[in-house]
Amino acid sequence: MAGGQPISNLRKVVTVVDEVVLELGRPVAAPVRRVAAAAVIRNPWAGRGFVADLQPDVEDLAPGLGRLLAGRLIETLGGVERIESFGKAAVVGLDGEIEHGGALIHTPYFGNVLRELAEGTSIIVFSDDRLAAGEPLTVPVWHKTAAATRSHYQTVQIRIPDAPRPDEIVVIAAAASGPRPNARIGDRRSDPVVRLADLENAR
Amino acid sequence: MKLRKIITLTEDIHTEGGRPVDPIARTAVVLAVIENPWAGQGYVTDLLPGIDEIAPQLGELLAPRVVEALGAPVEAYGKAAIVGLDGEIEHGSALIHTLKFGDHFRKAANATTLLPAVEKRAVAGGAFDIPLKHITDATIRSHHQSIEVRVPDGPRADEIVIGLAAASQGRPQARLAPLASEQ
C-alpha cells in the first residue's frame, strides 16, 4: 500500500534510552538523553535467492519503518524539538545481504521520512552489519541541521538478545537531545590550522 | 547516592510463533548505575546504614520511571542487582532485598507479592535476565517470564546496577495449563 503502512511481518519494537548523570564523578553540564529505537522485521527478500530489483519492497516497507521509528524517537525524548541529532542503522540476519539492510535505510523512502519527521536537514549518519542475534550494534548520531557540529558526534548502542534471526532485519533510528556529556574538544570554527607539514616541522 | 546513569528500555512484542500478539505485549526495564556505597571499605559487617540511606532513594527513582515507561497497568514485575567485580553480591542484595526498596514499586504497581530477583556479580556489559512474576499472585503461571538486558559500560568494578522490570501482561501466546490443574 502507498506509504508502506502497516508494516508487514513486524515482530518486535525495542527502545533504549541512556541518560548520563555523572561522568568521571562530575555532573554533566548539559544533561543529554540518547535513544535508539529498533524494529525487528522479517527480511522481505529472505528465501528468494538473489533479487535484482529491491525497489518494490523498499517502497512498501521503508516509509512505514521511518514513521514508526521517528515516532518512537519523538515520543521518547518528549517532542521533536528535543531531537538535536540523529542517526540510523540496519542489522541484517545471517542469511541476508548487507544490501538488504541498505535498501531499507539508504533510500529516500526511509531517510526522507525520518529527516522530515525529525525536522532535520542534514544527511543522516549510519552504521550497518550482518550479525547473529544478540550482538550489539553501535549507532552514530550527528547534528540534524549542522552535521559538522563536533559536540554532537556521539553514539548509542543497542542489542536485542533474540534478533535478528537469520531471516530477519533490525532497522534502527537513533537520536540525542544534546551534545556529548561534558563535550570540550572545540569545533571547526575554533580549531587552529593543522597541516601535516607543520606537525613534522615542529618535531 | 552517586548516580552515574539511567537506562530505560522497552520491548514491544507484535508477533510470537508467527502469530499476532493482541494486545501488543510490552515489557519495560529501568536500570540505575550507582557507585557501590561500600566500595573500598573492605569487609563491612553492618550494611544497615548504607541500606537506610540508599535503598529508599533507588526505590523512589526507579519505581515511577518503570511504571511510566510501561504506559499500561503492571501485571508482572521483577528486580535486579548486578554488582561490579570488586564488590560482594551481598552489597547488591542489601539494596534490593528490603521493603525500603521494594515497597516503592509495590505501591506504584498496586502489587502485593514478593518481587522475584536476579543478583549476580558481573563485568561491565555482562547480560543478565530479570525474572518477572504476577504482581498479586506469584503462582499465576502465564506471567512467569524474564527479560534480558545489559549496560554496555556498567557496572564498573566499584559500581552496582540496580533495576526494575514491569510487564503489561503474561507471556505472548501463553498456553500452559494453570498450576492448579496439576494438583
From TrEMBL, chain B:
Gene3D superfamilies: BB2672 (3.30.1330.110). It comes from the Bacteria. This is Amino acid synthesis family protein. It comes from Streptomyces kunmingensis.
